[in-house]
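Example record

The entry below shows one chain as it appears in the dataset: sequence first, then structure tokens.
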Amino acid sequence: MALWAGRFSKEIDAGVNAFNSSIAFDARMYRQDIQGSIAHATMLGDCGIITKEDSQTLIAGLQEILADIDSGKLAFDPNAEDIHMFVEAELTKRLGDVGKRLHTSRSRNDQVALDLRLYLRDEIAEIRVLTENLCKVLVRLAEQHTETVLPGYTHLQRAQPVTFAHHLLAYVQMFLRDLGRLDDTAKRMNECPLGSGALAGTTYHIDRQQTAKLLGFDAPMANSLDGVSDRDYCIELANTLSILMMHMSRFSEEIILWCSWEFKFIELDDAFATGSSIMPQKKNPDITELIRGKTARVYGDLQTLLTMMKGLPLAYNKDMQEDKEAIFDAVDNVKLCLETFTPMLETMRVNRENMRAAAAKGFINATDCADYLVKKGMPFRDAYKISGTLVAQCIAKGLTLETLPLEEYQKMTPLFTEDVYEAISLETCVKGRVSEGGPSPAAVAKQLVLAKAKLGME
């Protein structure tokens, strides 16, 4: 019989029971459920709501159940309604009437709200470590390529010269912001709903400050209605994870382009690529394609949570059981992507020569050619037109600005002299971009120092 039986005169329909059950997905919170129950039992004993002896018996029983689940000795009952009912039923089975005392002054509403906060707090810590590891890999890779010239793009057209290090550090900045959002989410959600009861607290003189402290929260939630009905932290985390996935998806798109024959800027290690069932020459970037696909899935989880919550009156509604599968799916997929994406980047081979060749053929030093004339006194718009004309001539003749003969330059204006070749060399162009945050080795070195400081790298 269900633990909530009493009001009802007959057993719940088997189909309804299966429809109502959440044990299949919330069983993963067993550790947090037991952790919360131990804190609750401790508080009940300390406040004299139950005897110290019963409190200690409950704690010992809960610890035994945790050990048995961890070891595999105790399996989850698929017929249990949820993880909370499973643990309580097992405790009562082992301890008898003492086990029934655990739920004094507590509701499943504040219990599930607590478990989910505890669980997601732990998951945020894990995702944070994985994101930091990704940043560290990118920083170390950037350190190797501070002078590797890469064409920078706008509209997916070669635009201006940068370095591979500069490009990688742009993603480091994105992921550092993701770390900040994870920290913000963890801080905002670190308030304890336990003691909110079903919605209106309890008539027992409980100590919510104690349970909050025992569970590592900053404080109890200030309002009991909000305590059981708030899922902002799920939505905020799903949003944070969606942005993190968006960053990985953008990077994945570039990896897909870069390892194509049309670019060939990088080559993935064989351990992080797949082949074709029919085309023996293929080496496919399936990991990055899956990350793009899973990004859509995480976005869907965010939409599920927003839509599920948008019309709910206070306080708890059964709709909110749908929060777990959505946020669990988002968490699982982000962790899976980070765990695969990071070693893929760490092991890929960078083709410096192809990057340099693409930069040379893209006329991405055309702005520097115009700047050369401006520095000799010509108005920028006139210099811009001359530089564009020279690019058109190079295209017609199959040349680059670096290989165009000096006499062709001087036909446009006598301001061009032999030093133009030094001024428009890709290396000079990159080194000359000394503004803060730019691609010059000196500017990149400062970016590396800042990133390493934020990541605690030496």
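Notes for this example: The two ends are 60 Å apart (CA to CA). Strands lie at 149-154, 157-163, 191-192, 219-220, 266-267, 349-350.
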